[in-house]
């Protein structure tokens, strides 16, 4: 469990402390996720709701791995990727999806820690493996849907110059552009809110443990 706590600290720094990921934090995060996935295969790790959330958090880095491997293959072997706009947008959106999934899962872990600290008995029926799996599944579905919308918007923008003036695709382009812009604004505001909430939660937990 100490290793899992260190992993959570690493992920909190990577996604909720740093304003943006850099090469070092991304590399350390990938190593931490790989090590965590190995640890979770051990029979010594009991199946708890927190462990389920951490497992889903580690799996989210698969999206980053796919992006990095794709870029390395293209750069190393000079592979001609077609269409380029689609691929570059996909890699960027996979990074975004990883960030959003990780932030939401980390916030779920923080909320669970809050419940364990202040409402251990009353919240026991909520802190179940079934609910943790359901929560993780919902987060993945919502973020993948967000990624699909961003990808559609980027693709339509890239191909807008070739669309006929009176094409019905123009209406689709405007709709996806507005929806993507609103979702990006909402994601930005939600990211700020999650940072504030997480700081508050661990502030309360820290002083609660200190008083004890």
UniProtKB/TrEMBL annotation:
<dbReference type="GO" id="GO:0035025">
    <property type="term" value="P:positive regulation of Rho protein signal transduction"/>
</dbReference>
<keyword id="KW-0472">Membrane</keyword>
<dbReference type="Pfam" id="PF00001">
    <property type="entry name" value="7tm_1"/>
</dbReference>
<feature type="transmembrane region" description="Helical">
    <location>
        <begin position="12"/>
        <end position="40"/>
    </location>
</feature>
<keyword id="KW-1133">Transmembrane helix</keyword>
<feature type="transmembrane region" description="Helical">
    <location>
        <begin position="97"/>
        <end position="119"/>
    </location>
</feature>
<feature type="transmembrane region" description="Helical">
    <location>
        <begin position="188"/>
        <end position="206"/>
    </location>
</feature>
<dbReference type="InterPro" id="IPR017452">
    <property type="entry name" value="GPCR_Rhodpsn_7TM"/>
</dbReference>
<dbReference type="InterPro" id="IPR000276">
    <property type="entry name" value="GPCR_Rhodpsn"/>
</dbReference>
<keyword id="KW-0675">Receptor</keyword>
<dbReference type="GO" id="GO:0007200">
    <property type="term" value="P:phospholipase C-activating G protein-coupled receptor signaling pathway"/>
</dbReference>
<feature type="transmembrane region" description="Helical">
    <location>
        <begin position="52"/>
        <end position="77"/>
    </location>
</feature>
<keyword id="KW-0297">G-protein coupled receptor</keyword>
<keyword id="KW-0325">Glycoprotein</keyword>
<keyword id="KW-0807">Transducer</keyword>
<feature type="domain" description="G-protein coupled receptors family 1 profile">
    <location>
        <begin position="32"/>
        <end position="212"/>
    </location>
</feature>
<dbReference type="GO" id="GO:0004930">
    <property type="term" value="F:G protein-coupled receptor activity"/>
</dbReference>
<protein>
    <submittedName>
        <fullName>CXCR3 protein</fullName>
    </submittedName>
</protein>
<keyword id="KW-0812">Transmembrane</keyword>
<dbReference type="GO" id="GO:0005886">
    <property type="term" value="C:plasma membrane"/>
</dbReference>
């Amino acid at each position: 469990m100490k290793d899992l706590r260190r992993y959570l600290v690493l992920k909190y720094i990577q996604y909720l402390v740093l304003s943006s990921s850099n090469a070092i934090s991304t590399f350390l995060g990938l190593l931490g996720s790989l090590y965590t996935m190995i640890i979770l295969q051990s029979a010594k790790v009991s199946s708890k709701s927190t462990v389920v959330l951490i497992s889903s958090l580690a799996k989210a880095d698969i999206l980053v791995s796919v992006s990095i491997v794709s870029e390395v293959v293209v750069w190393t072997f000079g592979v001609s990727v077609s269409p380029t706009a689609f691929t570059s947008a996909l890699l960027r959106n996979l990074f975004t999806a990883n960030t959003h999934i990780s932030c939401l899962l980390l916030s779920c872990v923080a909320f669970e820690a809050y419940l364990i600290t202040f409402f251990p008995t009353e919240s026991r029926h909520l802190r179940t493996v079934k609910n943790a799996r359901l929560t993780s599944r919902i987060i993945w579905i919502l973020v993948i849907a967000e990624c699909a919308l961003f990808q559609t918007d980027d693709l339509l923008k890239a191909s807008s110059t070739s669309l006929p003036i009176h094409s019905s695709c123009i209406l689709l382009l405007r709709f996806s552009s507005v929806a993507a812009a609103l979702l990006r604004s909402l994601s930005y505001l939600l990211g700020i809110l999650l940072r504030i909430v997480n700081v508050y939660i661990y502030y309360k937990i820290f002083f609660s443990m200190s008083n004890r």
